[in-house]
Description:
Layout: H1 2-23, E1 34-38, H2 43-54, E2 58-63, H3 66-77, E3 87-91, H4 98-112, E4 117-120, E5 149-150, H5 158-165, H6 169-176, H7 183-195, E6 200-201, H8 204-213, H9 223-267
Parallel strand pairs: 1-2, 1-4, 2-3, 5-6
Helix pairs in contact: 2-3, 6-9, 8-9
Bound molecules: NADP nicotinamide-adenine-dinucleotide phosphate.
Amino acid sequence: xxxxxxxxxxxxxxxxxxxxxxxxxxxxxxxxxxxxxxxxxxxxxxxxxxxxxxxxxxxxxxxxxxxxxxxxxxxxxxxxxxxxxxxxxxxxxxxxxxxxxxxxxxxxxxxxxxxxxxxxxxxxxxxxxxxxxxxxxxxxxxxxxxxxxxxxxxxxxxxxxxxxxxxxxxxxxxxxxxxxxxxxxxxxxxxxxxxxxxxxxxxxxxxxxxxxxxxxxxxxxxxxxxxxxxxxxxxxxxxxxxxxxxxxxxxxxxxxxxxxxxxxxxxx
Length: 268
Ligand SMILES: NC(=O)c1ccc[n+]([C@@H]2O[C@H](COP(=O)([O-])OP(=O)(O)OC[C@H]3O[C@@H](n4cnc5c(N)ncnc54)[C@H](OP(=O)(O)O)[C@@H]3O)[C@@H](O)[C@H]2O)c1
């Protein structure tokens, strides 16, 4: 019996191994690829830019300080593997005007082609004591201040109706796989979770599954919650893979339908 179970597990693992290349994404070939690195003039971003450049990529560095950008460009260029490679520098504050950021990325695309890889590394973190920090950077837990992140499901609101007007068919069909909640029901749950100091607030079995699957390094409010996450993680991931398969199926069917309609329109 034990031998049979072991044989079954081995066969299952082998099957997964064989099927895996069919579902894995095609690796990105870095030679000739255009890599945009925000925060590429320093630290982790600069090292990522160097690593990609060493593998033949074209680089766009995005950061604020022009001098730092030029220094980084010189440093990266020492690692070229052919004389066609380019390092472009763009000085912009990514936390400000979105239109400006969009424009500079367009400029980069005009010069080096479509972006193949975007590395978002711009930013900084600030550490310090609660009372010494500005309001937007502070550690809250020791002061009995808790954060609740709510994941509301599709909820029947004016905003949702507005959203539906432009929702692609694929998203509509995926949304239909779960039921629409009432705003009062959602509000009740969020308030309950927030007042209990729960880090996650979700509704229904799908919501519970999603918040468990995405718990990562998030804090737990009770030992039971932690235990539930540990025990259910594998099972939920298995269920989630079936969901993903079904969503992919919806997207594929919509694409086939759209191609058919286009062909009929052309022949008419
Ligand atoms: N280092 C770590 O241990 C660590 C660990 C976990 C996470 N992180 C995060 O990883 C990211 C990079 O960290 P790092 O240590 O490599 O930092 P870093 O050496 O200070 O580099 C930060 C880069 O971001 C750019 N930048 C900052 N604010 C910007 C803005 N508003 N617009 C455009 N560019 C901006 C900086 O250039 P300019 O100042 O010239 O704009 C610089 O190129 C940060 O978000 C950090 O919080 C770091």
